Amino acid sequence: xxDWLRKFRKIIIMVLLLLxxxxxxxxxxxxREKTTLFEKVVLEISAPFEMAFEYSVRSIRDWWTHYVxxxxxxxxxxxxxxxxxxLRSDLLQIDEIRQSNERLRKLLDFREETSLxxxxxxxxxxxxxxxxxxxxxxxxxxxxxxxxxxxxxxxGVVGRIIRSSPHVARVLLITDASSAVASLSQNNRARGxxxxxxxxxxxxxxxxxxxxxxxxxxxxxxxxxVFPKGVPLGNVVRIGRKSYGLFQSVTLVPAVDFFxxxxxxxxxxxxx
Amino acid sequence: MKNFLLMLLLGLGVIFLQTWLFxxxxxxxxxxxxxxxxxxxxxxxxxxxxxxxxxxxxxxFQDVFAGNSMGLYGLVFLIIYFMVRFGASRFxxxxxxxxxxxxxxxxxxxxxxxxxxxxxxxxxxxxxxxxIQNLFPQVLLNMLFAFLLLRILQLVxxxxxxxxxxxxxxxxxxx
Lengths: 272, 175
Hints:
By secondary structure, chain A is an alpha+beta fold. Chain A is built from 4 helices and 12 strands. In chain A, the strands form 2 sheets. Chain A has a 6-stranded antiparallel beta barrel with strand order 1-2-5-4-3-12. A 6-stranded antiparallel beta barrel of chain A has the order 6-7-8-11-10-9.
């Protein structure tokens, strides 16, 4: 028996290790929304280094853009003034629409939606592989961040919190293949599920007969339980409608530019 | 304890490079998989048990910063480690090309195993599509960084008394 064990020692160790690793993986899949102690420790150890490097690079970049790179400042100033004028006129129109919207809401006795408190956070690191899409932010459970909270930017949805340690948290981006967001078309209210495809998104389970056009904006429907209603997800760039089948295939470009994402807002739900 | 600290420092260093430095350097935020290259290296030169523990640990380290499934890369790197050991016992690891072949096939195996386990155990969506999209640049970057790692190891060997086995040169010892 001892000889047999000695003879097959390596194979036994290999099988035991592989089974343990598989078991560890499958156990963690059951509790995907929880952050393990190992993850918390590693995230906490790496956080100060990432924050320090992020801060130093940002300082250098700010110094460079503010004091050195002034070649196109006059031209940029003129463009901004023009844009400002345009925005002012848009704002007047929006104000008019807001007032009429308020009147209509009162008329229909709509309950005022309470806006969720938002916590600003800075992106300090990215996913360590090319195949998954996530970011690390500089706020954690000490700031009230919990797994499952929605994360947005000024342009639209960013993702949701999947891991949180005391000082940092990880956000799974909507472009990740495992992300799915209940969504609807802003124009004709056609419903579907937005899924990540790496650099872009697809709208799935949208009925063929629903008329969706290139350029339409897709927003969150609020029915998934994570994101509030009406936050932009992306714009339609391609539609595939076959002569058969129940659904159409819709491709979107995300509203948020994930390549240049630096700050995000974590929306904290009331009960949390 | 010394080995554990070495693993921790190496893991932290690689994580810093992959999550912070490389995305800022390369277009489209691409990054090489340094952990995979290290797993291939230790598959050739490390002792059986120590190498397996290192691979598992590096995989879990990767898991903390990649995707949403803790334990996935631990399992994947462990399988790749055993595959590399199997390959290394049959090929001439003194030949420089063997290391590159192993990194090349290791990258393909990693892509396949990640897709397989995610599709088999979770709702992976179109992960295979994302993986195929990025596979070619991933292979190129991994090969480039395997080359750079060998150059760094050679430099270490030439400039210090530290004996490190370098593929393509006669190995001076076991890690």
